[in-house]
Amino acid sequence: MRGPRGCTEPFVRPWLAVLSLSALLSSEVLACPTCVGPRLGDSDTGELRAHAGVRSAVGSDRAGAAPQRLEWSNELTAGASWSRASVEVALPFLARRVAETSEVGLGDLWARGALEVLRHEEPEASDALRVGLQLGLPTSRGASRWLYALGTSSVTPGVAVAWRHSDQSWALTGSLYAGLPVALPAAAVVFGPWFGSSLGAEYEAFRWLTARLSVDVKQQFAARERGVVLPESQFFAAFLAPEARFRPARWFSASLGASVPVVSASPGAYVHGFVYRLGVELAI
Asked: Is 190 helix (H, G, I), strand (E, B) or coil?
């Protein structure tokens, strides 16, 4: 479901500020943390690389009979990679509006690590399997209502397994992931677990332009608010996610993408809306 036109005006100025900030940061990748292997056949150099970056997204959803919820997220990331291992920390800054009520603050702090456990590589192609672990930590006491919560008030372990086949001008990726929030004592809102999968294809049309299309599926289980199960917080959804990545120089790239819901089911009439993503990176 599309967000109404004009609703994004309060988010335009902060979004531009984040893009200005991103020019001061260096980044290795702006892809999902489960992406593995050399990109489109590029060989692993084994170099130690540090990176930082910003991932920005604007989206909307609707929970049952509640008004539409609009969210703007900017995730600041920093980490390092060496050979076939990587680590990263990420802290999102969130702005959310429901009707006339707005909330601004930090989301959960995430620590992520991944290790490539299997690889078969030839001069023209490679296959790789990577296992990733992540841990979400609360940054605030949390909200008293699920609809307005910016963080989960939980310690959230997660796991991901990803496979990638890379060729000279194209690549295929597949991943499975899951998360299990463990609520802090006396938390008013207890979030449910989730799991999902993604299958994507990439094609390098030019050295400076890569297109990606993926199908993403997610199952989110219901949250509880003061012990009451919220059916409007549970959903199953499938998304079609196109993305274009521009890299006119080795040290600069930008990505533009979206997630378009094509299937949605919820016992509480939850409806996920469109999500628009923008990334800018400088690499050293």
From this structure: strand
How many whole angstroms separate alpha carbon 277 and alpha carbon 242? 10
* Per-residue pLDDT band at 207 (split at 50, 70, 90): confident
Residue 142 pLDDT level (bands cut at 50, 70, 90): confident
Q: pTM value?
A: 0.81
Handedness of CA 32, 37, 41, 46 (dihedral sign): positive
Taking 70 as the threshold, does the pLDDT of residue 216 lie above it?
yes
Report whether 194 contacts 178 (CB < 8 A): yes
In tens, the pLDDT along 99-132 reads 888 999 999 999 999 999 999 988 888 899 999 9
Q: For residue 79, what pLDDT is reported?
A: 86
Strand partners, 129: 118, 163
**Residue 179 burial class via C-beta count within 10 angstroms: exposed 0-12, middle 13-18, buried 19 and up:** buried
The contacts found for 78-81 with CB under 8 angstroms, 24 or more apart, are 78/50, 78/51, 78/52, 78/53, 79/28, 79/50, 79/51, 79/52, 79/112, 80/48, 80/49, 80/50, 80/51, 81/28, 81/48, 81/49, 81/51
Tokens of 239: 């998304």
CA distance 27 to 258: 21
Q: What is the pLDDT of residue 24?
A: 34
* Assigned token pair, 54: 């910003």
> How would you classify residue 107: left for phi > 0, otherwise alpha for psi between -120 and 50, otherwise beta?
beta
